[in-house]
Structure formats: C-alpha cells, structure tokens
Amino acid sequence: MTKDMTSGSPMKLIVGFSVPLLFGFLFQQFYNLVDTLIVGKFLGVDALAAVGATGSINFLIIGFCMGVCNGFAIPLAHKFGAGDYRGMRAFMMNAVYLSAAFALVMTVLTVVFCRPILELMRTPENIIDDSYVYIVIIFAGIPATYLYNLIAGVIRSMGDSRTPVIFLTLASVVNIALDLTLIVGVKLGVAGAALATVISQLISGIGCLIYSIRKFEILRTDADERRVNTSYMGTLCSMGVPMGLQYSITAIGSVVLQSAVNTLGSGAVAAMTAGGKISMFFCCPFDALGSTMATYGGQNVGAKKLDRVQEGLKASSILGIGYAILAFAVLCLAGEQLALFFVESAEREVIAQVQMLLFWNSAFYIGLAFVNIVRFLIQGMGYSAFAIFAGVFEMIARALVGFVFVPLYGFPAACFASPVAWIFADAFLFPAYFHVFRKTKRMLRIE
Question: Using one digit for the tens of pLDDT, what is the confidence trace for 413-432?
Fold first, then answer.
C-alpha cells in the first residue's frame, strides 16, 4: 500500500499520487462549500457573513496545525526514501508526542482569546456574536484537526495518498448529514455548522488511526522506537514549525485584508466568503500538486536522486499550467451561476462582487500553481525554514492591499489581494529553489 517515488516515470508517479489527494481536497472543500451553502440559504446573508468573517483567523490557526503536521511528515519521507524504517517509526512517535502538546496549548489559547481577536478585526456588530460562536467551536476542535492531519501525513510520507482520502470522504458525508440535521432540523444556527465540521474531522481522524494501526505493519513500533528523543523532536520542530508559521504568516495578511473588507459591510463580507469558497474549490488541484511534490521531493532527496527532483518539477509545472488555463475559462463562463448557489438572485450587488473576485483570482492561477509546486518542493527537500519567506512575501502583499488600497478603492481592490500575493511569493520562490537545489547537490556530493 506504500509507494516508492524514487524510480519510474515522474509524470506517472505525480499524477498517480496527486489524483487521490485531489479527490480528498475536493471532498474537503465540498463539505466546506456545503456548510457555506446551507448557512447562506437557510440562515441568510448576515449568518453567511458571520461565518466568512472568521475565515482568515480560522486559516491563521488551523493552517498552522496543518502546516506543522505536514512538516512533521518530511523527516519520515526522508527515512522512508532511504530505507531506514526504524528511524521512520521513531520520528513518527516523537511527532505524536509533539502534536499532543501543540494541540493542548493551542486549544486553550485560541478559545480564550478568539473574542478579543474578532473585536480587533473590526467584525461588524450585527454579526460578531455569530462569528464568535462559530469560531470558538472550531478552535475547541483543534485536537481533532491534529489527529487527522498527523496520521494522514504519516501515511502520505510512505507514498500512500489513497487511504487518507477514504476517511476524508467519509467525513464529508457525515459533515453534510450533520449540517442538515443541526442547522435545518435542530436549528442550532452557525453553531450547528461548526459542530458538524469538528465532529466529522474527529471521525475521519479516529478512523484513519485505527486503520493505519491494523493495516500498516511497517508502522508497528517497539519500546525503543517509542522513546522520547530530543534530537528527533528538534528535527521535527525545525521542519514542522516553519511550515506552520508559513501558513500563519500568510494568514496574517489575510486577517489584515479581512479587517479592511469588514469595514465595507456585511454584503461585501458575504461576497468575499462565497467567492473565496468557490475559488478554494477550484484551487484543489494546486493543493494536491503541492502536497505531492513535498512527498516526491522528500523521498528522492532521501534517495539522493536530485535529477528526478528536476524531472518532477517539470512534470508538475506542465500539469499546473494546463489546469490553470482550464479553470480560468470555466470561472469566466460560470461565475454568476456559481454565486447563485450561495445567495438569492435578488442579491445582485453580492453576485456581481463574487463574479469580480472569481475573474481576477482565476486570471492569475498560473502564479498560484507555481507557489504551491515550488514551495512544497523546497519544503520536501528539507528547507522548511527557508520556504517560510514565501509566506512573508504573501503577507506583505495582502497587508499592503488591505491597509492602502481597499480603503481607497473598496471591494475591487480586495479582488487583487491574492494575485498580488502570488506574484510576490513567486518572485522569491524561483531563485530560492535554484539556491536550495545547488546547496543540496553540494551536501550530497552529487556531480
């Protein structure tokens, strides 16, 4: 059930690994879309805006959790590629200990401080109560987020991208059923949407854990491999924390941008929410390619096959550019129809803003493709701390648009925040990749 990515056609391996990941991301975004759709249709524009107003702070915290877990998986991929399975299992156990500690601390801090953060972000008074109820439940479920993402990262590090998707699909079905039950049936409002998300994530995490224990003999540890190893923990943190911070630093710019959009009223917030959800759904192939390149790069660096790293970059770039062109064409033609899934046809201004956001975001999807492919490849090669600067550039770009241009030009300026961020990130990532490639070549003493 594992997959060695150090031999065979890079294009076939990348496609074979990324397709299950793609379905996983699609299902994940699908149930996020369903959350938003049900909230917008059954609870109204203000409730939709309330959920949307938490999006950037949600990404700031949950993105850190996901980034840390993805980073923890990189040393495992290196050990797997090198054939050192005992070392891989020892890294895995120390990643479990660290994840438990991170989850506990983050849950306490975020639950305590989420209301002041929403007030600092100038969340409109008519939606702040619902925003708080939604996000405090999401933050209380941080341990479930760590559980699923850590186990999924461990499994993917061995080349198996299919198993985590199976449980994510299960979570999607559960989430939709719970949405309908808790929002429409029990009438818990936005709290029902948050509870549905947390419960479904917990179910997928527990299922993934039980399955991996029973089916993956390579993960069965002995007493020596279960010992706390401070050296291994240091290596894990050097990979995981920078990746987590990269997500969070990127999200800081989104927080600034969200704060600026909040001043435009709940209609603009609702448009940003609906447009952002649609865009995230269409961006799933870029996420899948990025995660694939992290594992691909990690295994091939572990196997000292840098020529295959170059070949993989070329193959993934072809795939990313091709999809970006297709997605732009679809969103240009179907933007209005997609917006109508979230709001009533009478909300003409909101629909027009959603269309505008989708058009300008998708016009720059090629830049986003390279952000994901190159950044995750750098991380997979073992340079998580270096790749964090891409997040810094994205943060600067979004903050600049939020602080300067949204107050001057309103919602149209907000539509350019992500494209500008992707351009800034790419300007750093391309020279960064060539630098780390040459550095890795010298370290491995490859001619």
Answer: 999 999 999 999 999 999 99
> 């750093």: which residue's tokens?
428
Would you kindly state where each structural domain of the chain is located, as residue ranges? 10-443
Collapse the DSSP code of 118 into the 3-class scheme (helix H, G, I; strand E, B; otherwise coil) and give the result. Answer: helix
Considering only CA atoms, give the Rg of the chain. 21
Query: Does 346 score more than 70 pLDDT?
Result: no
User: What distances in angstroms separate CA 320 from CA 92, 164, 181, 218, 275, one per listed residue?
Assistant: 31, 23, 38, 33, 21
10-31 residue pLDDT tens: 999 999 888 887 877 777 677 6
**276 Cβ contact partners less than 8 Å away, ≥ 6 residues apart:** 52, 55, 357
Which CA distances in Å does 58 have to 157, 255, 297, 300, 364? 26, 10, 29, 34, 24
How far is it, in rounded angstroms, from Cα 307 to Cα 356? Answer: 42
- Confirm if 35 and 51 have CB atoms less than 8 A apart: yes
Contact 43, 193 (CB under 8 A): no
Residue 336 CB neighbour total at 10 angstroms:
13
CA pair distance 195, 203, nearest whole angstrom: 12
Q: What is the pTM (predicted TM-score) of this model?
A: 0.71
**Mean pLDDT highest for which of 206-210, 214-218, 317-321?**
317-321
Q: Is 425 helix (H, G, I), strand (E, B) or coil?
A: helix
CB atoms within 10 A of CB 435: 13
Both tokens assigned to 374: 């190159």
